[in-house]
Amino acid sequence: MNPVSYVLDRHPALVIDGALATELERRGCDLNDDLWSAKILLEQPEIIKQVHLEYFQAGADCAITASYQASLEGFQRRGLIEKEAIDLIQKSVRLALEARDEFWTEPANRPGRPKPFVAASVGPYGAFLADGSEYRGNYGLSEKDLMDFHRPRMRALIEAGADILACETIPSLTEAKAIARLLREFPSISAWLSFSARDERHISEGQRFAESVEELENHPQIAAIGINCTSPKFIPSLIGEAKRVTEKPVLVYPNSGETYNAEKNDWNGDPVLESFGWQAREWYGAGARLIGGCCRTTPDDIGVIAGWARSSRLAQKRTESKRDNVTNN
Ligand SMILES: [Zn+2]
């Protein structure tokens, strides 16, 4: 049983957490670095744990680890030896597990919600390049090259005890297929696979989102498929695209709607006007079942999502629709 079905068998929706980097910056961490939040793993690990705790308190059912931009090659470039690099990648999982256990030890935190789980972030090859290519793709690498890049980190994250892999912000179908094929080398773990998108229908590199989802549909280890780090304005249509071709739960955790400027390492534009957390109800209505936020979203946003996602009315509705399904069959 993977943690996604465990939660969705018992609750109407699964609440994903929000941005890690944004919260680290709010606490004074300087992320202007090729290693991004992974740099804080080296320098201020306690703060990462604090942010995970804050998201659990806000209502998140899972913590996505600070390994998005962590890679063996990236750390080795910074002078770490292989063993140290692996240890640092695994530390991202340990921090999230510690935060989860601390949170769950307190009985007052438990009523009405499942035990949270740890989703180990597997960022795309483009995140290692640190030039914004996770929103473009077109790396010019083969499926095999990409498998070789992802293999050591994936192994390290699994060995550190992650509950599931969050393969996220994937811009290209070639990379998604490489990850899917690599997963078969680690048959005990499940994963979610989340693309970045350029518009209502296409993932960042340009392939149709629906076709990309279809390619992954029969993979037994993929527990959910969807979109993250994409503007909320494209999300309802993308959910519709996915729902046409998949039986798997659909996940969405868009960014705030601002766009990333890789040269300046900054965000431009205005966030969506309507509250992010309330807007997310529309995504539930469109059929998404795992819902959270990516860059520039906050524990407050996640708190709003958890609020409506755990309301008794939503649970009631779900029971009714299950009953209807049974009657119709
Ligand atoms: Zn993001």
What would you call the shape? Answer: globular
Strand segment count:
10
The ligands found in this model are: zinc ion
Major sheet size, sense and barrel closure? 8 strands, parallel
Instruction: Supply the number of helical segments.
Output: 14
Strand order of the largest sheet: 1-10-7-6-5-4-3-2
What does the model show?
The chain is of the alpha/beta class. It has helices spanning 3-10, 21-26, 37-43, 45-58, 72-77, 82-105, 125-129, 143-159, 173-183, 209-216, 235-245, 276-286, 299-309, 312-328; strands at 14-15, 62-64, 117-122, 164-170, 191-195, 222-228, 250-253, 259-261, 266-268, 288-291. The strands form two sheets. Strands 1-10-7-6-5-4-3-2 form an eight-stranded parallel β-sheet. A two-stranded antiparallel ribbon has the order 8-9. The model has no long low-confidence stretch (mean pLDDT 91). The structure holds zinc ion. Zinc ion is lined by residues 229, 255, 294-295. Residues 229, 255, 294-295 line the site of zinc ion (ZN).
Summarize the structure.
The protein is an alpha/beta fold and 329 residues long. 47% of the residues lie in helices and 13% in strands. Zinc ion (ZN) is lined by residues 229, 255, 294-295.
Question: Layout of helices and strands, plus pairs?
Answer:
Layout: H1 3-10, E1 14-15, H2 21-26, H3 37-43, H4 45-58, E2 62-64, H5 72-77, H6 82-105, E3 117-122, H7 125-129, H8 143-159, E4 164-170, H9 173-183, E5 191-195, H10 209-216, E6 222-228, H11 235-245, E7 250-253, E8 259-261, E9 266-268, H12 276-286, E10 288-291, H13 299-309, H14 312-328
Parallel strand pairs: 1-10, 2-3, 3-4, 4-5, 5-6, 6-7, 7-10
Antiparallel strand pairs: 8-9
Helix pairs in contact: 4-6, 4-13, 6-8, 8-9, 10-11, 12-13
